[in-house]
Structure prediction request, 110 residues.
Amino acid sequence: MNETFTSTQPFVMDTAFWIATAIFIIAYAIIVSEKIHKTIVAIFAASLMIVLKILEQHEAFHVEELGVDWNVIFLLISMMVIINLMKPSGIFEYIAIKSAKWGKGEPFRI
Prediction:
């Protein structure tokens, strides 16, 4: 039976919840400190969640309520590809200059 999560189900704060919260806070602090690259920290934290069985691999990738929203992932990837293709053309600098001229240098108007 496929369980769905609703707002009527009680929220249980067990050990797994607190470990997941601690992993998140520690990972966030390391990312903010910029001592280690954020990609490495994120992959390590996600792997730690799976290794400690806080989140099953199936849940992380295939359960709609808990896992990856693939539509968002593909949207972000496609936006990054488009931006990387447009960057060499100078379109963003052009838009920035036109915006600054239109706003006459006033940040509120821009």
Notes: The chain has two domains: 1-68, 69-110. Residues 15-33 form the longest helix (19 residues). Residues 6 and 45 are 27 Å apart (CA to CA).
